[in-house]
Amino acid sequence: MKILFSTLGYKPAWRLGGPVISVASTAEALVRRGHEVTVFATDSNLDQTLDVPTDRFLDVDGVKVRYFQRIQLASRLVPWAHYFSKSVGYLYSPEMRRALDALVPSVDLIHTHMPFVYPTYAAAHAAFRFRKPLFYSQRGVLNPASLKFRSLKKAPYLRVVEMPILRRAETLIALTEAEKASYECLGLHDRIRIIPNGIDADRYSHPPNPADIEPLGVRPEHKVVLFMARLHPSKGADRLLEAFLALTGEFPNAILVLAGPDEFGLERMFLGRAMSAGLRGKVIFPGMVTGSLKLSLLARADLFCLPSNGEGFSMAVLEALASSTAVLLTPGCNFPESERAGAGRVVRNDVASLTEGLRDLLSTPHELRQMGCRGVRLVNENYTWNRIADSLLEAYADGVARYRSNLTAISAR
Asked: Average pLDDT, stretch 148-154?
């Protein structure tokens, strides 16, 4: 099949978070199966711009990728708007529309990977113009908690722009049962497939490299609690910090690593809070981590914690599990399978519950190690890219066949 992905950004746009990892890994898995995958993405890297050519196709690990220069419409109208907006933006690219018109007639299907951005709008309407089946992934953005964030912008756009696209999509892809429910809350009950993210578990099966983590101040005697996500109000780092500070007297060797891009300027506030508690060296801010450092932190951590308000399907959680690291999650992570498999714990999303969860788990190092072993088993049995590619290709085949059958029926009338 000839498949077109349209998404907000593509690797190496790691600052955009998990969707970049999962979309790229999905594309590469499909290419390994012999399918032709083309990706249209912008040059966005959250608050940065990728240093990539935007006038031609590139080969990125076997995937044909075209990056498009985005135009910041708000900044053009109000030059100082970027000082106040912490959004990735609409990612408008006029050149993308022309490129879609040239490419879409030759593809078998289009798969979009994020609401509320121009790449999804443009690709969806290209699918409609050229009568191609549209597959739509929301990646956690349509869950109720996410819709509440910046609701004044999202609500009218959802009603006027996104819902007509959702209603015409041939197949809606949900990462979890919770994502399926979020589609249903919008009145969309048909054509939903649950297909989770996957992971290349072998990449995470190595011990940590001391040379990576010692410069951060991580020592062999430390109990390491790791948070790895954007420092964003919805991710819950503030609650985790308060829970951790409440336990430092009980666990004097514990340290908290808050790793991720500081999208909202929260690091200064968090650092001030740690300093006021006299625990500056106990809370570490390595910023955005990639490569060997990221792998070493995941493998070295005694416990990974993500107290998020709402996730699609966190790649960081899968990475922690694949690294033999136990997880402490909240219901908004939408991953109860981790607790059912004995690989972690799910607690209420408040400081008191997080404090109790941290206390229970840090008090039982043997159980943490057992949870880590169960986590690796959970990943290998359910979340390999081969398994995910099988499910996605089945969804594509069913959706394309149904779409063509409907077109034939319409033409025969």
From this structure: 85
Q: What share of the chain has pLDDT > 70, as a percent? A: 96
User: What are the residue ranges of helices labelled H in 323-384?
Assistant: 337-340, 351-362, 365-382
pTM for this predicted structure: 0.85
Contact 5, 39 (CB under 8 A): yes
Return the DSSP state at 343. Answer: S
CA atoms lying within 13 Å on the CB side of residue 386: 4
Query: Pairing relation of β-strands 44-45 and 48-49?
Result: antiparallel
Q: Which pLDDT score is estimated for 81?
A: 42
pLDDT (tens digit per residue) in 190-223: 999 999 999 999 999 899 999 999 999 999 999 9
* Residue 140 pLDDT > 70: yes
Q: What is the pLDDT of residue 45?
A: 95
C-alpha 146/C-alpha 155 separation (Å) is 11
Q: How far apart are CA 88 and CA 91, in angstroms?
A: 8
Residue whose C-alpha is closest to residue 223's, from 347, 330, 361, 351: 361
Q: Can you tell me which residue has the tokens 């399907």?
A: 313
Count the neighbouring beta carbons within 10 Å of the beta carbon of residue 115: 23
- Please state the separation of Cα 44 from the chain's center in Å: 15
- Of residues 14, 18, 36, the one with CA closest to residue 27: 36
Q: What is the pLDDT of residue 72?
A: 74
Cβ atoms of residues 274 and 282 within 8 Å: yes
- At 178-194, the pLDDT tens digits run 999 999 999 999 999 99
Give the number of other CB atoms < 10 A from CB of residue 408.
9
- Count of Cβ atoms closer than 10 Å to residue 214 Cβ: 13
Residue 207: is the preceding peptide bond cis (ω within 30°)? no
Kindly give the pairing relationship between strand 223-228 and strand 134-137: unpaired
CA distance 109 to 274: 51
pLDDT in tens, 227-268: 999 998 889 999 999 999 999 999 999 999 999 999 788 999
The sign of the CA dihedral 389, 395, 397, 399 is negative
DSSP string for residues in 93-132: -HHHHHHHHHHGGG-SEEEE--TTSHHHHHHHHHHHHTT-
| CA atoms in the 13 A half-sphere facing the CB of 175 | 28
How far apart are the two ends of the chain, measured CA to CA in Å? 29
337 and 391 Cβ atoms separated by less than 8 Å: no
Specify the residue for token string 């919770």. Answer: 178
The two tokens of residue 255 are 């340290």
